[in-house]
Design brief:
There is one protein chain. By secondary structure, the chain is of the alpha/beta class. Helix content is about 45%, strand content about 10%. The protein contains eleven helices and seven strands. The strands form two sheets. A five-stranded parallel beta sheet has the order 2-3-6-1-7. The protein has a two-stranded antiparallel ribbon with strand order 4-5. Strand 2, helix 5 and strand 3 form a beta-alpha-beta unit. Helix 9 packs across helix 10 and helix 10 packs antiparallel against helix 11. The termini are far apart.
Length: about 260
C-alpha cells in the first residue's frame, strides 16, 4: 500500500502530454533547420503564401532562408526582396504594393507588432485566400518614390517570409494562425551541438583546431559568467580572437561575449 502514491505519480508522468516547450527541447537542432528549409521551399514554390520564423538572434535564420532560396534559383531583387529594420504601416503598404507579385522577406521588422495598422496589413497579406486585398483607407493617400499617388487598395499575389527575434508567444495570434510558423529557440545544450556540427563551415579559412579551442572557451565562459551571449556571432568573435594567438585570449573571449547590465 505504501508504494501506491509513487506508482500513481509515475503513471501520471507517463500519461502527461508534452507542451510546445518540452517538445522543442527534445528536438535535434538539425531537424529544426531542415524544417525551416522545407517550409521556405513550400513558400517559394507557391504551396503556401507565408511563413513566420521566430527565435533567438545569431542562429542563422536569415542565412538559411536566403541559402535555400538561392538553391532554388531565386535572385534578390528579381524574385525576392529583403526588407530589414524598422517598418511602419505606411512603409509596409508601399512595400507590399511595389512587390505585390514577389516573395518579400521582412527581417528584424519587429516594430510591426507594436503598430495595429501594420499588423492588420500583415494579416491581409498573409491570408491563404485566393484574393488577398490590401487596403489603405485614410484621409491622406500614400505616394510612391516618384511622388505618384498609390491606389487605396490592391490585390497582393506575392509571398511573405517574416523573420523575427521575438519569442513565438509575442507574435500576434491571428498572424500565427494565417501562416506556417517555426520557432528556432535552442537550449544551451542544443546550441552547443549546433555549433559543433557546423564548426567546419564557420570561418572556413581558419584551422579546425583553432575553432575547437574557441568553441571550448565560449562554452567555459558561458558556464562561468552571467549574461554570456551564446550564439554564432559570439562563436565568430571567439574564433577571430583565438586566431590572433594573444596570451590572454581566453579572457578576451569571455569579455567579448559577456552581457552588459
Amino acid at each position: 500500500m505504501k508504494n501506491q502514491p509513487k506508482k500513481r505519480d509515475m503513471k501520471n508522468q507517463k500519461n502527461a502530454k508534452m507542451n510546445f516547450k518540452s517538445m522543442q527541447e527534445k528536438k535535434r537542432p538539425s531537424i529544426m533547420f531542415d524544417d525551416m528549409n522545407n517550409l521556405t521551399t513550400m513558400v517559394a514554390k507557391d504551396i503556401s503564401p507565408s511563413l513566420v520564423i521566430t527565435g533567438q538572434p545569431g542562429l542563422g535564420k536569415t542565412f538559411n532562408v536566403t541559402k535555400t532560396l538561392a538553391g532554388l534559383g531565386f535572385k534578390e531583387n528579381e524574385h525576392f526582396v529583403h526588407v530589414k529594420g524598422r517598418c511602419t504601416a505606411a512603409g509596409m503598404f508601399i512595400t507590399l504594393f511595389e512587390n505585390s507579385d514577389k516573395l518579400i522577406i521582412f527581417d528584424d521588422c519587429d516594430s510591426v507588432f507594436k503598430d495595429g495598422d501594420a499588423v492588420n496589413l500583415l494579416k491581409g497579406a498573409l491570408d491563404s485566400y485566393d484574393k488577398r486585398v490590401i487596403t489603405w483607407m485614410t484621409a491622406k493617400g500614400l505616394k510612391d518614390q516618384d511622388g505618384e499617388m498609390l491606389p487605396r487598395s490592391f490585390n497582393f499575389t506575392g509571398k511573405i517570409i517574416f523573420i523575427s527575434n521575438l519569442p513565438i508567444a509575442k507574435v500576434d495570434s491571428a498572424i500565427r494562425s494565417r501562416s506556417f510558423v517555426l520557432d528556432i529557440t535552442l537550449t544551451p545544450q542544443q546550441l552547443m551541438k549546433r555549433m559543433r556540427d557546423l564548426l567546419n563551415v564557420v570561418e572556413p579559412d581558419v584551422d579546425l583546431k583553432i575553432k575547437k579551442d574557441a568553441l571550448s572557451a565560449l562554452n567555459t565562459a558561458f558556464k562561468k559568467f552571467e549574461g554570456v551571449e551564446l550564439n554564432f556571432r559570439s562563436l565568430i568573435k571567439a574564433i577571430r580572437i583565438r586566431q590572433m594567438g594573444f596570451g590572454n585570449w581566453r579572457q578576451m573571449v569571455a569579455e567579448q561575449v559577456m552581457g552588459v547590465k
